[in-house]
Amino acid sequence: MEPATQVLINKVSELSRAAGKVVVEQENFQLLGDFLDVVKTVAVELQNGEDTSHVLEDLLESLVEPVERAQELITFCTNKSRIYLLLHCRQVAMQLEEITRSMGRSLSQVPVSFIQEGGKDTKGSIDSLAQEMEHYLYPVKENEACLCQTLERENEGILSYPAVQTGILMDIARTVGIEDLSQDPSAFRSELELLKQDVEESQNDEDLHMMDLIGNMFEIWLQSNAQPSLSDDTQTVHPSHKRLEPLYDTFICPLTKQVMQDPVTIDSGQTYERSAINRWFQECLENGRPRVCPITGQQVQTTLKPSLALRNTIDEWTSRNEQSRVDIARQLISAADSSKEDVLFGLNDLQALCRKNRFNKYCIRSSGLIPVIENRLKNGAENGVEVRCTSLATLRLLVEDDDDNKDVVGETDLIRLAIKCLSRDLPQEREAAVALLSELSKSYPLCEKIGATNGAILLLVGMLSNRSQNLEAICYAEQTLNNLECCDKCVQQMAENGRIQPLLTRLVEGSDDLRIEMAEDLATVPLTSEDKAKAAKTVTMTLVEMLGSNSPAAQAAALKALCSLSTLESNGSYLIEAGVLTPLMHDLFLVGPNQVSRKLKEVSASTLANIVNSSGNWQTIPIDADGNTLTSKSVVHNFLQLISNTGPAIEAKLLQVLVGLASSPQEIGKVVSHIRSAGATVSLIQFLEAPPELRVTSVKLLFLLSTHMGEELADGLRVTTRQLSTLLRLLRSDNEIAEQAAAAGLLANLPVQDLELTHALLDEGALHVLINRIQDVRRGVGSIGSGRYMAPLQSRLVAILSRFTYALDDKEIQALATGYKFTPFFTSLVQSAGLDDVERWAAVALENLSRKSKDLSEFPDLPQSKGVFLEWLGCVKRPSLPPGLCPVHGGICSATETFCLREANAVVPLVSLLDHNDLDIVEAALGALSTLIMDTVDLEQGSQVLLAAGAIQPILNILLEHQTEVLRERAMWMMERILRNGDLAQRIMVDTDSQTAIVDAFQHGNNATRQLAEKALKHLNKIPTVTGVFLRV
């Protein structure tokens, strides 16, 4: 077997020769070969020695490991592509360093005893060399290191520049042995193919990124190198462009592959675009690379020599060709037989020319192309939306930063055509149109023209809230509207279409004259509730300030604007806080030469009416220096005086003011007192005969006042029946439902004991009107949107009808009640679920009707009784009533003739009301049911009727709950009478809760309730039946 030392010597010799043949990093691999030769020399020395101990074996093994790694690295660098190794040059150098250091550490472990010749001197040489190997750094070529650094991810921003990309590709090509990339691109592509194979084998993310980056740069370079462009705006060629002068190679920058605009020559003699070569030099500087010529690789200085002759030649060539392109575009766009593609090419080429310089815009304008594009836009339907969009985009570039072109556009119909495009369905067309308008609106004269075009501002404002519109179009619309704000008429139109902020800003920040103009606009434009709220928050203080100024024009404009804002109820608080009440009252009450016009007084009154009918807290606000408020006596008297002395328009507004004052629960008492002291009741009633605009408000005012001065109003209505007749006419279904509800409320609040008024109502045919109207309302007959008034109207109509049950002693009224079947009618109303007031008034009416039942019953002749005394002793039975007689009233009863609750089947519906949450309804139901056990009827039979209807337990529950003393007293009254029936008393005695309720009433009720409870307890045998505990009252 061959000794291990010899194996190592052979392998090192082989690797030393292989290292010299590596084509990349040749200098570094030659150094590796030199170090391998040293290892070989030491191995030979060890082989000549006689030591065969394990120390030698360990030493040989430590040398084998780096030698094998060196073999792997040499094989790797021999098989991989040159670009791949270039990208990994720093990693290769690091591996060389690790291998060399490992061999150095092994050599430093060679003992002196192993050395045959030289002894210690040789050992010293080996140690010195080993130390050098342990600290050796393999150099990486500066250009290669910088190139790798440039390609790293964090430098991708630099790599986006074409000039830098070209320079890097040339550097890579030279590094891998391709001296002129432009002459041999196929060799570079072959290297890229090899790189691709290496990267696919490694599957390293960073390698894949590098491969894609270099590959993309190479493809871009190939495209630009194959077809240099006239500019960076267009690379499209059209057959018509064959008439253009040819492009000369000397005009093309090697880096950008575009016609140079500022050519400069560097030290290598090559000519480049100034910006491109500067960018290349900057990239070299940032990456620590020497400044070299991108084509030759020659190191150069940064001195740039302008090539004026070449520049002038290029400029002349460019001017001739660009004018020719304008002419060609005009022919393509204007020709009737041009295809869609020809038209689009011409428009796009004009856009490219516009982007190059302003002079081209002048040439296009001078060639009359703007009217040509206008005609194409008019006929855009023939070529479709793409032509329209491209035409709009071309016009936008033409007018951008060019006032002369804007003026020409303003003389055409293009603004109207652009606005027409805004109304189309296609988002891209709307975006192109609004982009053009955004540019045109930078001209004040055109702003006026845009604003004067029908629908322009409406469409622009609408785009801001159009969710289907893209963000860029919305931004253009916003810019256009912002530009249009310089025009007062446009600002007014914006406000009319929901964009009110510009108007508000001008009103707050503008000059006095501008404020007046904006206030006038604010008063006239229709505003949404949201806009009114926004305006009130922003400009109320300014308007009040104008209202208090010495300028009549400012006062009038501010007053009208405030009136408009006051129509929103929630704005009342803003106006009050701003101090509007004082100047308003001043304008209203001021007389003499300085007083405001009647028209402005009307506006003041209207504003004040809106404020007092709003939710604002006006009640405590002083309106003058004396501290008077709106409900002070002198102020109310002044209102009443103005109502009498002004025309209908102001009278109507002042009546609305009184309505607002009377609508306040805290202030209505003062208003009523001041009306009484002014003796104005009759005057207010007379407004019922006024025209509708006054009558409606007067009815509402009288309704509000009727809760506090019903008798005075009844007296006033009796003076003449005309007003009473008017109120009844208002109840008909062809009148406004709100007015009907107010009229019904007024009549319902009049005193029911006023028989004269009741007869006056009868004379006016009130019963017929009321019955029919109640039936109409129950059927839902009413105007659209009247829902919130229907319930109060029905309850008030029932309340008016119930007043006739208070006058049943009158034979005429009694007959009418029979004829109109009052009892069945009110019984049906008791069951009006959800209409509490209707149920209450129906129960009240049934009580009044039932109290007359005994008197109206007919009593036939009955067999002679054998004596009450014998019946009491129980010797004989009480004779039963003949069939057909009412057990409660003892006679012949009916629902219509005698108003009997039992015959009308009203008892059960009334009992169902005893569990109602509204205590007034419970009280009314108890009142009606109590008529079945009053002194004039058969108490025992009435109690049985209540028992059969299930009334006993609800009555006891009322006692247990004792929510009010009135209810407890009424319930106790009924229980005491029911307990007189021995059988019922026995049933109730078993129920401990019932006894507890009665005992509680006995202990805690008022005097009347306690007396009734005492009697009830006696019926239950709970207390002695001797002397009463309480004195009778």
Automatic annotation (TrEMBL):
SMART domains the UniProt entry points to: ARM, Ubox
Q: Where are the ARM repeats?
A: 905-932
> What does the record give as the reaction this protein catalyses?
S-ubiquitinyl-[E2 ubiquitin-conjugating enzyme]-L-cysteine + [acceptor protein]-L-lysine = [E2 ubiquitin-conjugating enzyme]-L-cysteine + N(6)-ubiquitinyl-[acceptor protein]-L-lysine
Q: Report which superkingdom the organism of origin falls in.
A: Eukaryota
Pathway(s) the chain acts in: Protein modification; protein ubiquitination
Location of the U-box domain: 246-324
Q: One Pfam family this chain carries?
A: Arm
What Enzyme Commission number does this protein have? 2.3.2.27
Cited PANTHER family: RING-TYPE E3 UBIQUITIN TRANSFERASE (PTHR45958), U-BOX DOMAIN-CONTAINING PROTEIN 43 (PTHR45958:SF6)
Q: What name does UniProt use for this protein? A: RING-type E3 ubiquitin transferase
- Supply the source organism for this entry: Sphagnum jensenii
